[in-house]
Structures are given as structure tokens and as C-alpha cells.
């Protein structure tokens, strides 16, 4: 036990003396938050309209007219699903066709009051569509009126979406890159061979490196969340403990991948492309910067099982929705399966020489 | 006869069709410096690495201080000190921290100051390995091999790549360690080094031991067979000239 501590402390010392690596590990995510926070990629999109039909299809005309408008993206769904989506900020407006719908009735579009511009624009577009329908088909009847009614949403912003995503991404980067580069270097320079002639147990050494990175993870989580709350109006309502556990499980998945890459690579030149090949698609498609909601069906399905998707979704639910362990069971299960897989792969591929 | 500390019998290793070590046998006595000589690729390093538990033996046995290498590699690791040919250490720890860490790997409290003085690096206690010169690195590597007070110290080409001053300095260090009662097994392809340091040498070629005796005895045998040098022996070599002009061992530290 004493030796394990000694190794962990030595490993921590070594990690934190690598000043540049520490800087990039801890501050790069913060840079990205600032950068993407300014650019506000979410503003560039279309109006996300939830469409809830309680009338059993009495309003086909409305649906087809709305579908023809390019700036509107329609999500048809059950009322409570769409409601949740609205509260999470995934919808700008939700239009509800009531069960007793008849033409001429005024309709209500519920809005997310955290997004006043989108709401306003969406409301105008809807009114215009209905006005045109009224002119064409129902000249004598009363026009359809759209009222927007803000739901009691927590004012979720793009930052609330972005920051947990960046956190997930930085956990991935740290897990995959730092382990793979460090171990390939130790292997190449013969340090591992030198250790092998001492009575050290390889597992103790690996454990020290894993623990070091978990400590770094705690720092990353703490720093990003505090920076978010202090400077970026992050709506953090989660339990920090739950957040750490989800992050930890994610870190184990990516550390396993890092060790596997270190196992099959002979030099740093081989680590970089392999690690990028694995991490880049996830970085772009796992819902770090943009919601996966807009991905086409197949891509949506495929990316839904990426480990980074589970991690980003899990961290986001905990941070922003205050989800408990039970509420993120799906993400935890996904990460659990991945961590078993990646650790088995690491054990199979990792070599001391 | 002195006590046998390392007994190697029929040791063999092959890589595919290449026979790297071809069933060699030798004994090393307590407190001697035993040299394994040979050109590159003769099998010296493979031989050492099998005894050091780094490589599987294909055939034969090696018994060190009564411990069978194959049966109890973990106890062998406790009893030996090893300097590998291209030894490297963690960059981010100081020499003192490294020695203490290595001591912990053996469950010992290493006296870093003592170990560093033994290899004349006491001034570099706070330095990192990558700040050392080639000779200093090799001497540190020996200090690290001594943390567990090993029964046998293995040095694999300790002076390869060093300049003449640094090489002589290292010889001094090795002699002092031997005089302190350690048994040392080293490989080299410098004959002068073997002659200076080794009590006995084994000459290897193509995986076999072709001769084994004290250096002077091997020379005498050769002369007795009627050998004469094609060129008359010179009283000084170019290395002597070089050392005479540049000083024996002072230069390396600066």
C-alpha cells in the first residue's frame, strides 16, 4: 500500500512539472468555452418548432404549410417530450393543436423565454403562415391567432449546453492523449524496461498514472464549472458528487483507449494520427458543440452510442437538469459497457516493451 | 576456489532461425569482475537480459545466489542491480527523488546522498537526468542499480559512447564498487576496458563462448602459440596522446 502511494505521488509530481501539458490540459478547455461562448453557434440555426397534435390529425393543412417553410424545423412528438425539449432549450417554440381543434380557433405556441429573439421570430413566422392560410382557404372565417406563452423554463443558454460538452471533451482528450503520449515516450526511451528489472508490479505503476489523471480530472471539473458559474452565468443545478462520478467513469473509458493506443504505437508519430482518428469524429458528432438533434437519422443513431455522447449527455443532464444517478442510468450504463470494453482492450494491447 | 555466485548452464535463445545464444555455460565467483566480450551481435546483451529476467530463456538454467532465475524471477530482481544499455529515467524527477523512488520499489529507504557520492555525483543531487553528460548519466545509472545493495551488479556496455576521460572515470567508479565487495558482470567490446577491469573474461562470438580465462592468461596462451604482432608494439597509443594532452578525468564535469 505504501508503495502505491509513493508511486502516485511521484507520478503526480511528474505530471505537474510538465508545465506545458498542465497548461493545455487545464486551460485549453477554458479557452474553448470563451471562444465558442462569443461566437454563439446556436444563433446561426433555424427555428426549432415542436409540433404536438392532440386532435388526432385534424390539422394536416397546418402541418404541411409549416413543413414548407425552410427556416422552421419541425419536431413532431408527444406533449411531455416536447415540453421537456422546450425546457432544455432544444426547441424554440412548441405549437399545440388541442383535441377540440376547429378552424378559426386561436392556437397557442409555447415559447422558451430564455430565447426571446427566436421566440419573437418564430411567432411572427407562424402568424404569417396562418394568415396566408386564412386568405387562401377560409376567407370568411376568423383568422387563426397565434399566442406565444412563455413556459416556466429555466433560462438555459448556449453556455449551459456548451460547457458540459467541453468538459466531456477535455476528459476525453486528457484520457486518450496524455496517457498514450507519456507511455509511448517511457517505452521508447527504455524507462519501462528499466522498471521491469525492479520488483515493481506493473499494475501499481499503471494505477499511479490512472490516479494522477483522475486527480487532474477533479481539477478540470472544478475549474470549468466554477469558471462557468462565476463568469459565464452557467445554470449549474447539479450535484457535484454525481458529476464527478459520471466524469470518472468517462475518464476510465478514455484512459483505457489511451493505454490501448500506447500499446500498439511504437512512437509519438503513431500515437497522434490514431488518437485523432478516434477522438475527432466524437468531438464533432457527439454533441459537444452542437446538439445531435439535427443529425440525419443514421448518424443520429450511430453517434448515440459513442462514449463521448454518453459522457457529454450525462454531464449535461447532471449539471443543467440536476439529474440524479437514476436519471442518468442510461448514460452510466453506456459508459459502464464502454469502460469494460476499453479496459479489456487496454489489457490485451498494452505492452511494457 | 572462490564461491560461485552465478552458475549458468546451457543457456540458449533463438529468434526464429537466428540462434542468438547457443547453449553457453559459465560461472561467476563472488567479488570478481566478470567480463563478457564480443563484437556487436555476439549475444552478450541477450545473455545478460535472460539472467536479468528481461527475456525468456529457451533452454538451460541460470542460478544466482542459490535462486533459479526461471523459477523465481521476482526474488532475482530483489537480488540484482542492473544497468541497461540504453537506460533512461523519468525526466521530471531529480536524481535524489529518482533514487528514493527506486529504493521504494525494493521496499528500502535509499540513502541518496551516499549513493550519489559513490558515483561522484553528489553535486548533482537536485539535477534532472537530462541535464547530465553522457558519463554522468552512466554513473547515475550505476547508482540507481545499487539502491537495493545487490548481490550481483550487471553492467551492459557501461562505457559505450563515452569519451576517454569519462570512460576512465567510470572505470574508477567500478573498481571502487568491486573493492566494496560487489560482484560485477559487465559486457564490453573494448578490449582495453576488459584488460583494465576484469578478473576473468568470456569471449563470445556467434552466440558461443570461444574462450574464458583471466585476460593475462588469454594473452599468455596466445603468445605461447607462437603469435607475434605484425607491427612492433608501440610504447604509447593515440589514446595516450589524447589523454596526455586533454587531462585524465577532470574535463568531463565542466
What labels describe this entry?
heterodimer, A: 353 residues, alpha/beta, abc type-2 transporter like fold, five-stranded mixed β-sheet, 5 strands, B: 254 residues, four-stranded antiparallel β-sheet, 9 helices, globular
Ordered list of secondary-structure elements with their pairings:
The complex is a heterodimer of chains A (353) and B (254).
Chain A: H1 2-17, H2 19-39, E1 47-53, H3 60-67, E2 72-76, H4 79-88, E3 93-97, E4 107-112, H5 116-137, E5 146-151, H6 158-188, H7 191-196, H8 202-231, H9 240-264, H10 268-285, H11 297-303, H12 307-321, H13 329-349
Parallel strand pairs in A: 1-2, 1-3, 4-5
Antiparallel strand pairs in A: 3-4
Chain B: E1 4-15, E2 18-29, E3 33-37, H1 44-51, E4 59-64, E5 67-68, H2 73-79, E6 80-83, H3 95-105, H4 112-118, H5 134-145, E7 152-156, H6 164-179, E8 183-188, H7 191-197, E9 200-205, E10 208-213, H8 215-224, H9 238-246
Parallel strand pairs in B: 3-8, 3-9, 6-7, 7-8
Antiparallel strand pairs in B: 1-2, 1-4, 4-5, 9-10
Quickly describe the structure.
The complex is a heterodimer of chains A (353) and B (254). Chain A has 353 residues and is α/β, with parallel strands linked by helices.
Class per helix and strand makeup of chain B: alpha/beta
Please state the CA-atom Rg of chain A, rounded to the nearest Å.
Answer: 25 Å
Query: What is the string of SSEs of chain A from the N terminus onward?
Result: HHEHEHEEHEHHHHHHHH
Assembly form of the protein = heterodimer
Label the structural class of chain A.
Answer: alpha/beta
Amino acid at each position: 500500500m505504501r508503495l502505491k502511494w509513493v508511486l502516485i505521488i511521484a507520478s503526480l509530481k511528474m505530471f505537474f512539472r510538465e508545465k506545458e501539458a498542465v497548461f493545455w490540459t487545464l486551460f485549453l478547455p477554458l479557452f474553448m468555452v470563451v471562444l465558442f461562448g462569443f461566437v454563439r453557434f446556436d444563433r446561426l440555426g433555424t427555428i426549432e418548432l415542436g409540433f404536438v397534435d392532440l386532435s388526432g390529425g385534424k390539422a394536416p393543412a397546418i402541418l404541411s404549410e409549416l413543413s414548407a417553410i425552410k427556416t422552421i424545423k419541425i419536431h413532431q412528438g408527444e406533449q411531455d417530450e416536447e415540453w421537456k425539449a422546450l425546457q432544455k432549450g432544444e426547441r424554440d417554440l412548441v405549437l399545440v393543436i388541442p383535441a377540440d381543434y376547429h378552424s378559426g380557433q386561436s392556437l397557442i405556441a409555447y415559447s422558451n423565454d430564455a430565447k426571446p429573439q427566436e421566440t419573437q421570430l418564430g411567432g411572427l413566422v407562424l402568424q404569417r403562415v396562418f394568415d396566408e392560410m386564412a386568405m387562401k382557404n377560409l376567407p370568411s372565417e376568423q383568422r387563426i391567432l397565434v399566442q406565444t406563452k412563455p413556459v416556466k423554463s429555466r433560462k438555459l443558454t448556449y453556455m449551459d449546453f456548451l460547457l458540459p460538452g467541453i468538459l466531456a471533451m477535455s476528459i476525453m482528450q486528457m484520457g486518450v492523449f496524455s496517457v498514450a503520449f507519456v507511455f509511448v515516450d517511457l517505452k521508447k526511451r527504455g524507462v519501462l524496461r528499466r522498471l521491469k528489472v525492479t520488483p515493481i508490479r506493473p499494475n501499481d505503476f499503471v494505477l499511479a498514472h490512472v490516479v494522477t489523471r483522475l486527480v487532474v480530472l477533479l481539477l478540470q471539473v472544478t475549474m470549468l464549472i466554477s469558471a462557468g458559474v462565476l463568469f459565464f452565468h452557467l445554470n449549474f443545478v447539479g450535484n457535484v458528487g454525481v458529476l464527478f462520478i459520471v466524469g470518472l467513469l468517462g475518464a476510465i473509458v478514455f484512459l483505457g483507449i489511451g493505454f490501448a493506443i500506447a500499446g500498439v504505437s511504437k512512437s509519438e508519430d503513431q500515437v497522434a494520427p490514431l488518437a485523432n482518428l478516434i477522438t475527432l469524429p466524437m468531438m464533432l458528432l457527439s454533441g459537444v458543440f452542437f446538439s445531435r438533434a439535427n443529425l440525419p437519422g443514421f448518424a443520429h443513431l450511430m453517434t448515440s452510442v459513442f462514449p463521448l455522447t454518453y459522457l457529454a449527455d450525462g454531464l449535461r443532464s447532471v449539471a443543467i437538469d440536476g439529474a440524479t444517478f437514476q436519471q442518468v442510468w442510461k448514460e452510466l450504463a453506456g459508459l459502464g459497457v464502454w469502460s469494460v470494453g476499453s479496459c479489456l482492450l487496454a489489457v490485451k494491447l498494452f505492452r511494457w516493451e | 576456489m572462490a564461491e560461485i555466485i552465478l552458475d549458468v548452464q546451457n543457456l540458449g535463445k533463438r529468434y526464429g532461425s537466428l540462434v542468438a545464444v547457443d547453449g553457453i555455460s559459465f560461472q561467476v565467483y563472488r567479488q570478481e569482475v566478470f567480463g563478457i566480450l564480443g563484437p556487436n551481435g555476439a549475444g552478450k546483451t541477450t545473455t545478460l537480459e535472460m539472467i536479468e529476467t528481461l527475456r525468456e530463456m529457451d533452454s538451460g538454467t541460470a542460478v544466482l545466489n542459490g535462486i533459479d532465475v526461471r523459477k523465481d524471477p521476482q526474488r532475482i530482481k530483489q537480488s540484482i542491480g542492473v544497468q541497461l544499455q540504453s537506460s533512461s529515467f523519468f525526466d521530471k524527477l531529480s536524481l535524489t527523488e529518482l533514487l528514493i523512488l527506486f529504493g521504494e520499489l525494493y521496499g528500502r529507504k535509499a540513502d541518496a546522498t551516499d549513493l550519489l557520492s559513490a558515483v561522484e555525483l553528489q553535486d548533482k543531487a537536485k539535477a534532472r537526468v537530462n541535464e547530465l553528460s553522457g558519463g554522468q548519466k552512466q554513473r547515475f545509472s550505476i547508482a540507481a542499480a545499487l539502491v537495493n545493495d545487490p548481490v550481483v551488479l550487471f553492467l551492459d556496455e557501461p562505457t559505450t559512447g563515452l569519451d576517454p576521460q569519462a570512460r576512465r572515470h567510470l572505470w574508477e567508479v567500478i573498481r571502487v564498487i568491486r573493492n566494496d565487495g560487489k560482484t560485477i558482470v559487465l559486457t564490453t567490446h573494448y578490449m582495453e576496458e576488459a584488460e583494465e577491469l576484469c578478473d576473468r573474461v568470456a569471449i563470445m562470438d556467434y552466440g558461443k563462448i570461444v574462450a574464458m580465462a583471466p585476460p593475462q592468461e588469454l594473452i599468455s596462451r596466445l603468445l605461447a602459440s607462437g603469435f607475434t604482432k605484425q607491427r612492433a608494439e608501440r610504447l604509447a597509443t593515440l589514446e595516450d596522446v589524447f589523454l596526455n594532452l586533454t587531462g585524465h578525468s577532470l574535463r568531463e564535469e565542466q
